[in-house]
Specification:
Length: about 450
């Protein structure tokens, strides 16, 4: 506390200072010390409506200056602007405090933040598109695509690989596919859509969904980041998990395999619309793209695809059954017979009895199954090689047994199957069906899972 009885002090000019004057000076010095660099910042840019100073401030400030001058002579005020700090006045205001010479504000304030738009506008003239999956950074909007009469939605960031116009397959490559990837890289980097006008005689077929190795149509390891040709015994697979979803408003089938190449696991998935011969497969696709894969399946519209006529025929097999072992010594044989019957009202012309064996996990990598498949008809007991180098007869329909059938007619074909030592141990699916040009086999297509063993 200041001593009120302290003697007057004089400066160089001889003037004396009273206790009251000293108190006033100390108060003003204290007020000056409150001024910070924050108070000297440039004023905010003017708004659309200029808020003017309150009249009471415009009158009070000059009065305070006169009172201070009367008390201590000439006093320089070091105060902050008298305008409301929450809504600072524009630089053009008529009443401002003079800032310190060491901190001169610029004439044009620099904004401290940029307004960020909260939504992306759709350019004029462009149609709105579906929202892409959050797991994938979109590089282009989702688009509609039509292949052989089947419509689908290509997810954002995905692209359709150029395909041969005569092909039954088209590949939709994922955003994670390597730069320069083509349809040949669809496994594991994309989704394959297959649309057939007649019975599928190449992969995939409806019977593939029942086979332990139905996902594999060639010796290949579809490992993400490392697709390669496997060595013997590298591929392991299990029986598929089967479901019956609805796709495009129609009953469908789906099979899922959990497989591995060595220590690299992968998932294989195939959807089939049997009545339309439309298939969607994703072999080794990264799990990050599962939502996009499902969106492709959900978007399918097959109403524009002319479905083949279903053949009303039955197939019955005797003499062989699933789980039966077959020794691959080149001499042991499996003998069985198949009866084909036309239950429809139309003659089946050009039809052929076919036995379809696939390249199973135990077979030599990248090579067809070895061995011999022979047959004979009731009126011809001469055993003939059906295909001495390959069992996969559906890939070459000319190797089938001609069996034109009138309505209600049936025929029985006998077969003999022999495998070579090059065919390694493992589960080998054997499919038996009736191939009719431009049509589908009946629902009784039979799959027999043989167990190939070695000595």
């Amino acid at each position: 506390m200041t001593d009120k009885s302290a003697p007057r002090t004089g400066g160089d000019d001889g003037s004396a200072e009273t206790p009251t004057e000293r108190l006033l000076r100390e108060a003003m010095n204290a007020r000056t010390s409150l001024i910070t660099a924050h108070d000297l910042r440039p004023a905010a840019p003017p708004r659309s409506r200029i808020r003017r100073l309150r009249p009471v401030y415009a009158v009070t400030v000059p009065l305070l200056g006169l009172a201070a001058a009367a008390a201590i002579g000439v006093v320089t005020l070091h105060g902050s602007p008298v305008a409301d700090r929450e809504t600072p006045p524009p630089p053009a205001a008529t009443l401002t405090a003079s800032p310190s010479p060491t901190a001169t504000p610029t004439a044009t304030p620099t904004p401290t933040a940029t307004e960020t738009p909260t939504a992306t506008e759709t350019p004029a003239g462009e149609p709105e598109t579906d929202t892409p999956s959050a797991d994938v950074t979109p590089t282009s909007p989702a688009k509609s695509y039509t292949f052989r009469g089947v419509k689908l939605r290509v997810p954002a960031g995905w692209r359709v690989a150029p395909a041969d116009p005569a092909s039954f397959h088209v590949c939709i490559l994922s955003p994670g596919a390597p730069q320069g990837a083509t349809a040949a890289d669809c496994q594991p980097y994309g989704v394959d859509l297959a649309v057939f006008d007649t019975e599928s005689q190449t992969w995939p077929t409806v019977s593939d969904l029942d086979s332990d190795g139905g996902w594999a149509h060639q010796g290949f390891c579809p490992v993400w980041g490392d697709p390669h040709t496997p060595v013997a015994g590298e591929v392991t697979t299990a029986a598929p998990t089967k479901t019956t979803p609805t796709v495009s408003g129609r009953p469908a089938r789906k099979s899922t395999w959990q497989s591995a190449c060595g220590k690299s696991p992968f998932k294989a998935q195939i959807w089939a619309l049997p009545e339309d011969q439309v298939f969607v497969s994703a072999i080794g696709l990264k799990a990050d793209y599962q939502d996009d894969l499902q969106s492709i399946v959900d978007s399918l519209d097959v109403s524009g695809h002319a479905a083949p006529t279903i053949v009303n025929a039955t197939v019955s097999v005797s003499g062989i059954k699933s789980g039966q072992q077959l020794l691959n010594d080149g001499s042991s044989t499996a003998e069985f017979s198949v009866t084909f019957k036309n239950n429809g009202t139309k003659r089946l012309t050009g039809s052929k009895a076919v036995v379809h064996g696939t390249n199973y996990p135990g077979a030599p990598a990248g090579k067809p199954v070895n061995g011999v498949l022979a047959y004979h008809l009731p009126d011809n007991f001469l055993w003939r090689p059906l295909d001495p180098n390959r069992i996969d007869t559906l890939s070459d329909p000319t190797t089938g047994v001609p069996v034109d059938l009138d309505p209600g007619q049936s025929v029985t074909v006998s077969y003999q199957l022999r495998l070579a030592p090059q065919d390694g141990p493992g589960p080998m699916p054997l499919t038996v069906g009736l191939s009719v040009p431009g049509n589908l086999p009946g629902p009784d297509l039979t799959v027999i899972n043989l167990s190939v063993v070695s000595k």
